[in-house]
Design a protein that fits this description.
The protein has about 325 residues and is of the alpha/beta class. The protein contains twelve helices and eight strands. A hairpin with a 4-residue loop joins strand 1 and strand 2. It is globular. The N and C termini lie far apart (about 60 Å).
Length: about 325
C-alpha cells in the first residue's frame, strides 16, 4: 500500500512538472494573435479583423470554456466586408483572469469595457455560440442602444439545466469540471485528446492554439465558475430581462444531437420568441461543435450574421435571411 501511494505521488509530481514545462513552451509557441486591452483591472484579448466601413461591428462570443480561435472560419468569411471581433472571456484563451463572478451580466459588462477601451464603438451585432448565447443576451439587456442584432448559434437556454431530463445534471457537470482541472494539473490532457470534437475542421494552427489552452487547469476552473453562476445569477437575470421588441434575431440550431435531443430542440424552438423580428434555421447535418468549426457549417452561420446586419437596416430577418440563402455570397 505504501509503495503504491509513493508511486502515485511520484507519478503526479512528474506529471505536474511536465505540465508546467509544456505550458511554458506553449506560451512561446502561441503568442496572442490579437490585441491585449484593459478591461477594468485586467487585460482582455481581442482579435479584430476587417475594416469598419460604416455598418455594425460583429462580436463573436464563444461557448463554455472556448475562445477566439474557435470562430476562425466565421471571422474569415465576414472580415472582407465588416469589422469582426473574436475575443476571449476573462481567464480563457489569452485573457487575464478576472476577480469578478462569472455570470453572464458581469462578463457582458467586461466585454463592453474592453470594446470601448479598444475604441471599437457600436452598434454591435453579437453572435453567441452555446453558452455564449447567454452572454450576448445579457449584453443586449445592458446595452440595448448599442445592440443592432443578435445571432444565437445553437445557443444555451437559461432553463437548460432546470429542464434537463437527468436530475442535478448541472452538479454532475461541475464535478466533471473539477475532475478535468485535476487531470490537467498532472498533464493528462497532453497525452489524451479530450477536446477533438470542439476543433475538428479548423486549420492546424487554430486546433493547436485551442488544445494548448484547453490543457490548462485554469480553463476548467473558469468553466466551473461560469457553471456555478448559471443557476443562481445568470438564469434569474435573463428571466428579468426586457423583451427584445423588434431587435433583429437569428436562431440557428443543429440536426445532430447525441444526447438530450428532445429537450434541447424544445428549448431552441422557444428562442425565436424573444423578438418580434426573428427567424430560425436548423442545419440538418451539423453538430453542436461543427456549427462553427466546420467550414461549410460556419459559412451558414456567417450568412445568418449578414442577414441580421441587413435586417438592422430595416428588413425583416426572415426576408433578409431568405435572400442570403437564395444568393449565397460566402459559400
Amino acid at each position: 500500500m505504501a509503495w503504491t501511494f509513493i508511486g502515485l505521488a511520484a507519478a503526479g509530481l512528474a506529471g505536474s512538472a511536465a505540465q508546467r514545462a509544456a505550458a511554458q513552451r506553449d506560451e512561446r509557441r502561441f503568442p496572442a494573435p490579437g490585441r491585449m486591452v484593459e478591461a477594468g483591472g485586467f487585460r482582455m484579448h481581442l482579435e479584430v479583423r476587417g475594416e469598419h466601413l460604416g455598418g455594425p461591428t460583429i462580436v463573436l462570443e464563444a461557448g463554455l470554456g472556448s475562445f477566439s480561435p474557435n470562430w476562425h472560419w466565421v471571422q474569415q468569411a465576414l472580415a472582407d466586408r465588416l469589422r469582426v471581433v473574436a475575443y476571449d472571456r476573462a481567464g480563457l484563451g489569452w485573457s487575464d483572469p478576472s476577480p469578478a463572478p462569472r455570470d453572464a451580466a458581469t462578463m457582458a459588462a467586461e466585454l463592453h469595457t474592453a470594446l470601448h477601451a479598444a475604441d471599437i464603438e457600436g452598434p454591435y451585432v453579437l453572435a453567441g455560440h452555446s453558452f455564449g448565447g447567454l452572454v450576448v443576451r445579457a449584453f443586449a439587456e445592458l446595452y440595448r442602444p448599442e445592440t443592432a442584432g443578435l445571432v444565437l448559434v445553437d445557443a444555451s437556454h437559461p432553463d437548460q439545466w432546470a429542464r434537463w431530463p437527468v436530475p442535478s445534471a448541472d452538479r454532475i457537470q461541475l464535478i466533471s469540471l473539477r475532475i478535468s482541472a485535476a487531470a490537467a494539473r498532472v498533464g493528462l490532457f497532453r497525452i489524451v485528446d479530450a477536446f477533438g470534437a470542439v476543433s475538428a475542421g479548423l486549420p492546424e494552427r487554430q486546433v493547436a492554439e485551442l488544445n494548448a489552452r484547453f490543457a490548462l487547469p485554469s480553463t476548467s476552473d473558469v468553466e466551473a465558475a461560469e457553471m456555478r453562476a448559471w443557476e443562481p445569477i445568470t438564469r434569474p437575470f435573463l428571466h428579468r430581462a426586457s423583451a427584445l421588441g423588434d431587435l433583429p434575431l437569428a436562431v440557428i440550431g443543429v440536426g445532430v444531437q447525441p444526447m438530450g435531443a428532445q429537450t434541447l430542440d424544445a428549448l431552441q424552438e422557444e428562442l425565436p420568441g424573444l423578438s418580434m423580428n426573428s427567424a430560425r434555421r436548423v442545419i440538418a447535418d451539423a453538430t453542436h461543435e461543427s456549427l462553427i468549426a466546420d467550414r461549410e457549417h460556419a459559412s451558414r452561420v456567417a450568412e445568418a450574421i449578414l442577414a441580421v446586419v441587413d435586417a438592422a437596416g430595416g428588413e425583416s430577418v426572415e426576408t433578409a435571411w431568405t435572400a442570403r440563402e437564395t444568393h449565397p455570397a460566402i459559400r
